[in-house]
Give the backbone structure.
Amino acid sequence: MTAWLIRRFVKDYENTENGEVRAAYGTLGSCVGILVNLLLSAGKFLIGLLSGSVAILADAANNLSDAAGSIVALVSTRVARKPVDAEHPFGHGRMEYLGSLGVGLLILVMAFTLLKEGMEAILTPAALSVSWPVLTVLVVSIAVKAWLYFFYRRLGRATDNGTLLAASKDSLSDVLATGAVLISTGLCALFGWRIDGYIGLVVALIVLKAGYEVCRDTVDRLLGGKPDPEKSRRLRELLLNYEGILGIHDLVIHDYGPGRCFASVHAEVSDQCNIVAIHEIIDNAEREIGRELHMPICIHMDPIATEDETTNRVRQQMNDFLREIDPALSMHDFRMVMGQDRINLIFDVVVPADYTARQELIRSLNAYARWTAATGSSFSSTWITPEGRPLAFLKRLRYHFQERFFKEELSDEQRTQIHRRNDR
């Protein structure tokens, strides 16, 4: 059924990276959700009135709220399709995330309602009325909601649509809630056990967890969470296939909604290469990778020394030293700058977001610099150049690290002191 609906209402349904196709998937999922939930609500409301079952009437109201959630999903999908404008230069794609958040909040409301009803059922247990109309409605509701769960999940996974994935969890929550009512009703009829309140509490906690996960994942995306590792890996792999690109760093993927990502990255190139030729290679990489990944990319070139034996040796030894401190550390933009009476080593060190030993790292690097500059033990003759200038990076490195990575930890007085030391 799901496959037929997709083929019938989504043109070019296999091209899920296309914005129009993604929007068609979202529209299909939302419209089916609205129709099914309205039909369920109307049927349950009619049978609830005829049978006098309060439980079925309450379930009809719940289906009505699910239809409202599908309307939220439809509106967010349609708004997300709007092109860029003067106020929104990166489009409106994040509206899908807001739609997911809205559905997540509806799931949380349902969870708290179930908690309240479960506590009331435990404190003031009441006899459960059992009739064939009630049982029939419950079974049909479970079957339809289970189908909706798989329907939403397939569409959501195919297009990375958070709103549809949230709707699938909402449908699963309905299956659990209605199933709990069915089980407690059957146990009460067979054995006289009145455990519907306790089952309701268990289901409420499961639904609460689902709602929390939907809201958490959506808020993470809105705040700028960690990008898809597979997308980062693929982008890195494609870039390194281009002749002349020796390495990359500072890769950032900006998420402005599903299908609306932008990437920026620094590409290391030899300082001996022809600037016009390498610029043409970079331009080609931007166009070709952008087309393949459906993601605009901006590449900044960083020239590095590749022909100087001393520079290569010192760079390798500094890399080895960093790995000895912590394998998670890495460096880039390594340069050797000639000073009046010494050569300064300048480079950036990449530290993990949760790295806590930053000050210890600075002290270790400074101590290593002092020791090697004084003894020449580690870098041997490379520390003293043919011109007699010692290789040193003590003061410049300290300034570079603190200014770039620890701005929030430095007072104005500390910055002044660092500048004075560098001037000396």
